[in-house]
Design goal:
This protein is mainly alpha-helical and about 60 residues long. It has one domain. Helix content is about 75%, strand content about 0%. The N and C termini lie far apart (about 45 Å).
Length: about 60
């Protein structure tokens, strides 16, 4: 039931004139952020220093 409550909270935080695409996008972003936060808590995240190093490689 946690997922349903989270979805309700996300939808209720949006303006009344929101489109269905915007609702779906908001739910998607919420899920991705939650997943990322979980990975960080589990020690699977990438440090800022490592992220900057990787970004430098990509921008070459």
């Amino acid at each position: 039931m946690l997922n349903k409550e989270t979805a309700k909270r996300v939808i209720e935080s949006l303006p009344n004139d929101v489109s269905m695409d915007e609702i779906i996008h908001a739910l998607y972003v919420n899920v991705k952020f939650s997943h990322g936060e979980k990975e960080i808590r589990e020690g699977k995240g990438v440090s800022q220093v490592d992220a900057k190093k990787q970004l430098k490689k990509w921008l070459k």
